[in-house]
Amino acid sequence: MKVVERIKEPIYEEMELFEKKFSKSMSSHISLLNRITHFIVNRKGKQMRPMFVFLVAKMMGNGKLNERSFRGAAVIELIHTATLVHDDVVDDSNERRGFFSINALWKNKIAVLVGDYLLSKGLLLSIENEDFDLLKIISIAVREMSQGELLQIEKARNLDITEDIYYDIIRQKTATLLAACCAMGAKSVFASKEEVEKMYSFGELLGMAFQIKDDLLDYSTNLKTGKPQFQDLKEGKITYPFFYAYKNANNKQKEILINSLGNKKVQTLKILELIEKLNGIKKTEELAKQFYKK
Amino acid sequence: MKVVERIKEPIYEEMELFEKKFSKSMSSHISLLNRITHFIVNRKGKQMRPMFVFLVAKMMGNGKLNERSFRGAAVIELIHTATLVHDDVVDDSNERRGFFSINALWKNKIAVLVGDYLLSKGLLLSIENEDFDLLKIISIAVREMSQGELLQIEKARNLDITEDIYYDIIRQKTATLLAACCAMGAKSVFASKEEVEKMYSFGELLGMAFQIKDDLLDYSTNLKTGKPQFQDLKEGKITYPFFYAYKNANNKQKEILINSLGNKKVQTLKILELIEKLNGIKKTEELAKQFYKK
């Protein structure tokens, strides 16, 4: 059994029910919108975010979920979907999860409006049910994520970043959303403030471990992941493998590394060899393990 | 004195104070973000939305505003600014209010992130101060606006739209936001449910009159407005002047009109002449007046 299946097992029924509720939460009287949201439901991914909301809610609520847990998961998924739809416009992507992107099928203008619509539906789902505490959790996550990405852009091509800044970036960019899911799960079943905070930290550490692993995959030659390789390097993003290798490099190696950054025609295997030689891969693996342990 | 100046007069001090609060509401610890939001504050427009919040709040609150009125105006302006920043990305615009657009100066990716950040700051300003009633007003407006634009796109190039659909489109697309501002002003000073609804309807009628006037300007040869002319026609958007003329046209004229729709190289003066001949301009002027009267 795959990892995701194993995680899903204790909340199988909840995930089934969630799909129905989630699909309903997007409905509109505009037929164009219904066609698009129907398409979005069909190309659904692993739904990691709702999963973590339910797992934590079930654990903290003595095996029982409530309607708040479902609404919390739906709000996170609605807002997350809205940002994915917008991201594809920005990156001019034609593909998402093996399907065409919304912008590829319906053009940019429509994709942005669909994103705005999903976002407002998420907000209203919380507001109309007075789940203000849950809405606060996700709003903070949106703020942190946009700040994290902007910090990464600000620091891109800037080689004097410190280990702390690297942690800040991955914390804000990725770990925040998983942290919000876990906190949301706890909050939805009225866990205490301390328990909610504990779950937030747990989600954050797990999210950081995920992101480090993801950064590592980008430097891997394993083609099973299905993701384009060396994307970070080509886009000039400094992640841990590069960061560590650079710190360890002599002047000549530093020059090679700098020239590879943001270079779309970079000789990837040569750079990988150099980063491996400078312990960038090994150290990143260790770091990921460290976060999982925590 | 210009109309805007005259409207602003009774709330001059409030608008001054608002600017300071608004600017502060966008601050971040990321320096890139602060540079961009500073730029946004400097290129500010007429600030019609805060103006209407304050005018209504002052009127309904016996001449007094409160902090809720300021926060309500800031939330509307933050969310509105976020959508403008995103719109410029979608339309690939290089300009906004005579300044460069955010995407022109900082690229698409950054512009989208800045939009997300402004949005989350707006949400948190409401949530942290427990202005949930105000947040609901603006969330409904966002939903209605995105649905209105999508309805317009769905009906674009569809010549059998009815007068009611035309009203629906301009109501959702534009009037909703002004209606939300007026309702927000009333709600912020704790006006009764009936008063809030009355103010909502007032803003809606005013917004519809504005939009009809705007649709008319697009068919005008007057260059004072500074807006690109015949944009709606070139983009294939059916607005009232075209709509009315088409209903009145004979088969040959209908063919000419259809061929002009969405045609970037259309002979604008010839089409304008035809629309004028078919009473499209005169009828639209009458319609705008009708809404102002209401």
Q: Main attributes?
A:
homodimer, Farnesyl Diphosphate Synthase, two-stranded antiparallel sheet, 1% strand, globular
Uncertain segments of chain A:
none
Alpha plus pi helix count of chain A:
15
- Written as H for each helix and E for each strand, in order along the chain, the element string of chain A is HHHHHEEHHHHHHHHHH
What class do helices, strands and sheet pairing of chain A give?
Answer: mainly alpha
Task: Please give the domain count of chain A.
Answer: 2
CATH topology of the largest domain in chain A: Farnesyl Diphosphate Synthase
Question: Can you tell me about this structure?
Answer:
- Two copies of one chain form a homodimer.
- Chain A has 294 residues and is mainly alpha-helical.
- In chain A, 74% of the residues lie in helices and 1% in strands.
- The first copy, chain A, has 15 helices and two strands.
- Chain A has a two-stranded antiparallel sheet.
- The radius of gyration of chain A is 20 Å and the shape is globular.
- The two termini of chain A are 25 Å apart.
- The mean pLDDT of chain A is 86.
- At the A-B interface, helix 3, helix 5, helix 7 and helix 8 of A face helix 3, helix 5, helix 7 and helix 8 of B.
